[in-house]
Amino acid sequence: MNIAKNMEAIVVAIIAIAAATSLATASVPASRSAPAVIAASADALTTHVVYVSAKRLSAEEKAAL
Fold first, then answer.
1. Alpha-carbon 11 to chain mean position
2. pLDDT value at position 17?
3. Which are the contacts of 31, defined by CB distance < 8 A and separation ≥ 6?
4. Which of 46, 44, 27 lies closest to 36, judged by CA?
5. Contact at 8 Å (CB) between 35 and 42?
6. ∠ CA 4-1-11 to the nearest 5 degrees?
């Protein structure tokens, strides 16, 4: 049997096995339809804000760089 002739079939079979394995072992997320879950996730949400304060460079300063 010449493996080079069947290389495409071998690769497709490996990808199919890997896809089936990943689907079989994937965890199922908790239901997000319950109001308590939605409220808890909204409370846990934090937004990080970064303020940058600096003066703009003038044209002469930009040219010097």
1. 26
2. 93
3. 37
4. 44
5. no
6. 40
Q: What is the pLDDT of residues 30-44, one digit of tens each?
A: 655 555 555 555 556
- Supply the Cα-derived Rg of the chain in whole angstroms: 28
Q: Inform me whether the pLDDT recorded for 25 exceeds 70.
A: yes
pLDDT of residue 16: 94
Instruction: Check residue 11 and report its DSSP letter.
Output: H
* pLDDT for residue 39: 54
Helices (H), the chain: 7-25, 35-44, 59-64
Task: Round to whole Å and give the CA distance between 7 and 9.
Answer: 5
Retrieve residue 55's tokens: 């003066």
Q: Which amino acid is at 51?
A: Y
Do residues 42 and 34 lie in contact, with contact meaning Cβ atoms separated by under 8 Å?
no
